[in-house]
Write a structure and sequence with these properties.
plant defense; Allrgn_V5/Tpx1_CS; two-stranded antiparallel ribbon; single chain; 4-stranded mixed β-sheet; 6 strands; transmembrane helix; globular; alpha+beta; Pathogenesis-related Protein p14a; pathogenesis-related protein; 40% helix
């Protein structure tokens, strides 16, 4: 093994270099194991989440679609919240095996859920919830002619934080969920 050194510096002896190589190799091997573990964990998390894959560019797709529907009735914008998104992603990961649209017990957040076959993006899910708009009668503050509470959660004026997740279930279906803070749909209160 040859080592080059700058003029005026002492060459490193092969004995000290070998000891250095062994120590460096041991240290680097340890770092390599840690790096592989971190990459493995990151990959397993990334594969369970479908956010950012396919047609969906980012969480901004969820935000933009919500805000478009909210603007139609003069409700201010909703903003993405990473903590709320992490909470929602954790719950979505629990639904991968069954794709059931169950609300988690004791959640402090409002939620909308959707399940669909194929590539159901977050934007498509939010637009689907928004199709309930004609079923909401503002004057009576009731759903008439069908379900409307997914829509009213979207436009709930006090819900200003949003976190969503999208996962592909083992049966091939897509599960989409959005959480809202503070929650909406309080009995006797209008959304806007």
């Amino acid at each position: 093994m040859q080592c080059k050194h700058s003029p005026g510096t002492k060459p490193v002896s092969s004995h000290s270099l070998d000891a250095f190589s062994v120590s460096l190799g041991t240290i680097m091997g340890g770092y390599l194991i840690i790096l592989c573990t971190v990459l493995l964990l990151a990959t397993s998390v990334a594969t369970s989440s479908e956010l950012g894959k396919g047609k969906e560019k980012s969480y901004q797709d969820f935000v933009d679609t919500h805000n478009s529907i909210r603007a139609e009735v003069g409700v201010g914008p909703i903003a993405w919240n990473h903590t709320l998104a992490a909470y929602t992603q954790k719950y979505a990961n629990e639904r991968i095996q069954d794709c059931d649209m169950e609300h988690p017990s004791g959640t402090p957040y409002g939620q909308n859920q959707a399940v669909g076959y194929g590539e159901m993006t977050g934007e498509q899910a939010v637009k689907f919830w928004g199709t309930e708009k004609p079923n909401y009668d503002y004057e009576s503050n009731k759903c008439v002619g069908g379900e409307c509470m997914h829509y009213t959660q979207i436009v709930w004026r006090n819900s200003v934080h949003l976190g969503c997740a999208r996962v592909k279930c083992t049966n091939g279906w897509m599960y989409v969920i959005c959480s809202y803070d503070p929650p909406g749909n309080y009995v006797g209160e209008r959304p806007y």
